[in-house]
Amino acid sequence: MTAETPNLRLRLNEAMKDAMRAKDSLRLGVLRMVLAAIKDRDIAARTEASREGVSDADVVQVLQKLVKQRRESAEAFDGGGRPEMAANERAEAAVIESFLPTQMDEAATKAAIQKAISDTGAASIKDMGKVMAALRERHAGVMDMAKASPLVKSILGA
Predict the structure, then answer these.
(1) Phi, psi (5° rounding) for residue 107?
(2) Cβ atoms of residues 153 and 128 within 8 Å
(3) Most buried residue, 44, 77, 85, 116, by CB count within 10 Å?
């Protein structure tokens, strides 16, 4: 880590302090919730030998999970006729997403899938697991695996 690229946990803490100073209650609440979720992951990952916190990659997974939960909640609120609650969930998701790495666009995703297929020697739908594992290893955090999976399936199934 260089001084120009502070780790994600540090960025979240600094953003929380900025939200406190700006009296931005929505952002402050979301950041406190995010930091609590990360602390929960830290506690779950502790062992007798290691008391260190989780890595930035694990923090990204926590953030992605929280965004997914907010989106699902927003859809449920929309379905239940609660647009104000749905809007709040979407606003929370936007705050969390601002800390996630930029996601690959569709063209880059397709190119990465093609490379993973050729690198793993995948020939049929039976090899989908190998391709997805390679994608997760190489592009965790920057590729939406939920969108990549149907693309892999269509390419291997064709």
Answers:
(1) -65, -45
(2) yes
(3) 116
